[in-house]
Each structure stands twice: as structure tokens, then as C-alpha cells.
Amino acid sequence: MRLLIWAVTVLVLLFGTLMVGLAAAAAGWLAGAGEQVAQSAQAAAQMPLPEWLAWIDPALVPALRGLMQWSAGMLAGSAPWLGPLLGLVPPVLWTAWVVAAALILMLAVGLHLLAGRWGRGGAGGPRGGFVAPR
């Protein structure tokens, strides 16, 4: 039982670390590529509609293009302050993950101790428990 507790704990910690690492890398990339993303969105708004979107009402297409251009303009306008703000995301993510990992480890230690007590025949365990008097 203890082995299962620690195996699950290690897998959760590895998966969490992987996810936080990917999110921090994505935030760092976005912080450095904010203007390029805005230019790409502006270019995408100029592209013709793909064939697989032919079901969209043609009268709606100019409104969608206008929305994309407006979004690209907003992104380009916010790039000067969005980059430094996104630069703060990775340290915040890693700090939150350290706190979460510490809580997960404390839970695993508590379950480890509980499993040890249960396995020795403590109250309610398979080898012990309440015995009615005769």
C-alpha cells in the first residue's frame, strides 16, 4: 500500500512539474513574441476563407474579419505592457507549484503513516480492531 501511495505521489509530482514547465515556457515565449503574434493575427485576417468554412453565412464574413483585425490591433497595442507582465508568470507559476508540491508531499506522508498504522493492526485494521467482550 505504501508503495502505491508513493508511486501515485511521484507520478502526480512529475505530471504537475511537466505542466508547469510547459505553461512557464509558453508564457515566456509569448512575452518575447507578442508583436509577432499580433502581426500574424493581422495577416490571418486578410486571408481568404477556407473551403471547410463554406457553411458560414457570407454576410457574416466581413464582421468576422473586422473582429480579427480589431483583436490584432488590441494585441499589438497591448504588447508593450503585456510582455513584461507575461515575464512575471513563470516565477509565479513555479512558486505556486512549490507550495502545491509541498502540500501533496505532506498528504503522501500522512497517508504513508496512516497505512503503516492500519497495516500493524491499529483500530479498524484487518488484523486488529474492536473485540467484543464475552
What does this structure look like?
The structure is a single chain. This protein is mainly α and 134 residues long. It has one domain. 76% of the residues lie in helices and 0% in strands. It contains 4 helices and no strands. It has helices at residues 2-32, 34-46, 61-87, 89-119. Helix 1 packs across helix 3 and helix 2 runs antiparallel to helix 3 (61-87). The mean pLDDT is 83.
Summed up, what is this model?
The chain crosses the membrane at residues 92-114. It contains four helices and no strands.
Layout of helices and strands:
Blueprint: H1 2-32, H2 34-46, H3 61-87, H4 89-119
Helix pairs in contact: 1-3, 1-4, 2-3
Keywords:
134 residues, mainly alpha, transmembrane helix, transmembrane, membrane
* First-last Cα distance: 34 Å
Major β-sheet, in short? none
Average pLDDT, all residues: 83
Oligomer: single chain
Element-by-element helix/strand order: HHHH
Helix content: over 70%
Tertiary shape? elongated
- Helix and strand content put the structural class at mainly alpha
Transmembrane segments: 92-114
Keywords: Membrane, Transmembrane, Transmembrane helix
